[in-house]
Structure formats: C-alpha cells, structure tokens
Write a structure and sequence with these properties.
single chain; 152 residues; 3 helices; disordered N terminus; 5-stranded antiparallel β-sheet; alpha+beta; 5 strands; 2 domains
C-alpha cells in the first residue's frame, strides 16, 4: 500500500482539516498498486463465475428427469431462527431418503404420518421438493419403486 504525500499536503490540510485527520491516521490510501487491484478483481470474478456455473449445473441436474413419489411426515423440528420445519421420509428403489420442508400456516400439514407428494430428480433423489399443497388421497396405496414420471 502506497501513501501519496507531497508538498501540497500543507495546503490541503489548511483547506480541509476534517479530512486531514483521516489522512494522518492512514485511512485514506491513494495510488494503490494496480497489480493488487487486478488480482483482487480477478479473484472475485473467478469466484463469482464458479458460483454461477455451480448454480447452473445444480439447476440442470435438479430439473432433469423429474419423478414423483409419496412421502410420509415423521415429525416437527425447530430451526435455528425459531421457525418450524416438518421432517419427512420417502423411498426410491428401496432406498430410504429423508428431508425437511418449512411449515407454512396456510396448509393444514398433518404430522406424523401425513402423506404428501414429493418431486425429485431421478439421478439425485436427495434434492427433493415436497408438495405441501397436494396431500395424497387414501385411494393411492401402491407406489412404483422408482416413482411416477408424471404427476398422478
């Protein structure tokens, strides 16, 4: 970090005494090395690009080959911000997955043993989304092991 000082400092301190206090304490930096600025912006740009690419990859993976199955609520948990979430479990190809969804007051969510549809990508079922607004009717008793390709 380079500090810029010259003979004009005296003239500047007389004209702007309030800013001079910060100048003397080292809060005002003038003439920062261009290489430092370039490195900082390059690092920030690379990090933002990596986050953007990851978000696109995740969106593609989650929205590709969507299936539906039935989840059963298992209980209610408290979140760190004093809200509540509902835990649920579902099976895909005889493997048990679990997740949680935020509790909303506009739906009358039954827990435990409430049945709701779950939307999930076939290749990564753990990235699921529960459909609180669509409870499963009692008439549906048989669920395909790999889920439905279309909403039943």
């Amino acid at each position: 970090m380079n500090y810029y000082k010259s003979n004009d400092t005296l003239r500047f301190s007389i004209a702007c005494p309030e800013i001079t206090k910060y100048w003397e304490k080292g809060f005002i930096l003038i003439g920062m090395n261009n290489m430092d600025v370039t490195r900082r912006y390059t690092l920030r740009l690379c990090l933002a690009g990596a986050i953007f690419i990851y978000a696109l990859w995740r969106l593609y993976r989650v929205s590709h080959d969507i299936r539906y199955t039935v989840a059963t609520t298992t209980g209610r948990i408290s979140t760190p911000r004093n809200h509540f979430a509902i835990k649920f479990q579902f099976k895909v190809n005889n493997k048990l997955y679990s997740g949680s969804g935020s509790e909303t007051s506009k739906y009358n969510i039954r827990y435990p043993n409430g049945r709701y549809y779950v939307k999930f990508p076939y290749k990564s079922p753990a990235a699921c989304e529960i459909q609180w607004d669509r409870p499963v009717p009692d008439s549906i008793t048989v669920v395909p092991p790999d889920g439905w390709k279309e909403f039943p």
